[in-house]
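User: Predict G-protein coupled receptors family 1 profile domain-containing protein's structure from this.
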Amino acid sequence: MTKKNQTVISEFLLLGLPIQPEHQNLFYAMFLAMYLTTVLGNFLIIVLIHLDSHLHIPMYLFLSNLSFSDLCFSSVTMPKLLQNMQSQVPSIPYAGCLAQMYFYLFFGVLESFLLVVMAHDRYVAVCFPLHYTTIMSYEVCLALLVLSWVLTTAHAMLHTLLMARLSFCADNVIPHFFCDTSTLLKLACSDTRVNRLVIFFMGGLILVIPFVLIIMSYARIVSTILKVPSAGGIQKAFSTCGSHLSVVSLFYGTIMGHLCSSTNHNTVKETVMSMMYTVVTPMLNPFIYSLRNRDMKRALGRVFSKKKISFSLKW
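Assistant:
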């Protein structure tokens, strides 16, 4: 009888953001501008690293992967949000919802792993500068990137397959602007204990272990910096880590805020913190690296100067 009364869900309705109808167009324009800024900023960093040979070093290889992750992470949710803001029926198909959840987990966790790899790179650069090229060889960098992508794929696939085994009944309204894992579990009418156990266990591993590894790397970096007698050496060491440390603080700060709002079961706060995490952080990362990083500024100048010279030669 229970199986007969269940309705197969073919799509979900996304309630979106708690915005008044009269402010809808204003927020649509703002979110569109933020998304375009995110795409252009991260795309510019990727192109710049590719074009400038001075940036073909491990630090910027990892940065290009981080920018790609940020670009894709924002693209998982923002285009659908913008579409639904202009739609009378803000829906998403069941398969599309699972796909969105998969890529959201994938690129979100990938950024965490990449930040760990970048912290290790800065640790080697500061603590073992004479052996940097040997330790951070091309093969090692490639292995670290492949490991990050493989672990991220396995993690996202695990949660997606566990979600696909659940049954959804009559309630198909998601009080969010994207298919969040915790929100979907609340709508399921089958046993979700396995899902919640895996989320608790894997979430701890994915969040805590990378954060601890980053803290350990910077503890060693600070310890080494304090042993440097010259103020110039200290300033140079901090300048190599400043951008990455700013991104780490922004990334984990927004995650902590998102987790706190989820624990308090405040839907509005959770939605706002999700917006900070999925939109604001990927948008600010290119600015942090371009404004605080001298190499990026110089590379930008070199690329534009080459373009000017080639343009003048053509004329």
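Strands lie at 11-14, 91-93, 173-174.
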